[in-house]
Design a protein that fits this description.
Elements (H helix, E strand, L loop, with lengths): L6 H15 L10 H14 L7 E4 L1 H5 L4 H15 L20 H6 L2 E4 L15 E7 L3 E9 L8 H9 L19 H9 L6 E2 L5 E2 L6
Parallel strand pairs: 1-4
Antiparallel strand pairs: 2-3, 3-4, 5-6
Helix pairs in contact: 1-2
């Protein structure tokens, strides 16, 4: 008996169906490599619903935020604590499974929008300010609130994480690595080429990339 099997095509079809069932669209003509990239990229970006305790950095706690920012932070914290859906606070590029979040790919940090729930759509309204967070298994770490885009390559985000929750990134320490300092612009250019660089922090901690970009 002659049996023909195309395991790559089976994989492509299975992942496309999973994306379709989750209401994410990808062209049926996308090859197996493209489908795998899109599927696993979405797996990384999508925040699974689970109750997580919110931990706020001293930077967040000491800042004098406008009332609407404080309300947004409390709203996100309540959603996290109750196990609600945090994905509406993400960028609407989440609709595009293959879209790369370069900050997340490099440092494992999500950015959330601080707008209000939008009755006419899934995502909250857009605001210039963003909340930078580290999503853990049991905790949601509020790192800082900064303007959109301006902070995506600012290593101060990692400094805050290491100073307050060093255990969260301890596994990414590059022991014995030569210290190499990059400017924010150099780091952005590396990310655009899907490359990553180590990050020397003030306390002598050299961090390798927290994720595969």
């Amino acid at each position: 008996m002659h049996v023909e099997a195309d395991f790559l095509e089976d994989l492509r079809a299975a992942l496309l169906e999973r994306l379709r069932r989750s209401k994410f669209k990808l062209s049926k003509k996308t090859n197996v490599h493209g489908v795998c990239i899109a599927y696993f990229n979405l797996q990384k970006r999508y925040i699974r619903q689970k109750a997580r305790q919110v931990l706020r950095s001293p930077k967040i706690l000491s800042a004098e935020h406008p009332g609407w920012v404080s309300s947004a932070l409390d709203r996100i914290a309540a959603t996290s604590a109750s196990g609600g859906d945090l994905n509406p606070y993400q960028s609407d590029t989440l609709r595009r499974p293959a879209f790369p979040d370069r900050l997340l790919n490099d440092w494992g940090i999500h950015h959330l929008h601080l707008g209000e729930p939008n009755g006419s759509g899934y995502f909250v309204t857009r605001r210039p300010e963003l909340l930078y967070v580290l999503v853990g298994s049991d905790h949601l770490h509020f790192i800082d609130v900064q303007d959109h885009g301006a902070s995506f390559a600012d290593k101060e985000l990692l400094e805050i994480v290491h100073q307050n929750w060093p255990e969260a990134i301890a596994s990414y320490r590059a022991h014995g690595a030569t210290r190499v300092s990059l400017t924010d612009d150099q780091r952005r250019r590396l990310r655009k080429k899907n490359a990553q660089g180590r990050v020397p922090l003030r306390v002598g901690f050299e961090m390798a990339a927290a994720a595969s970009g």
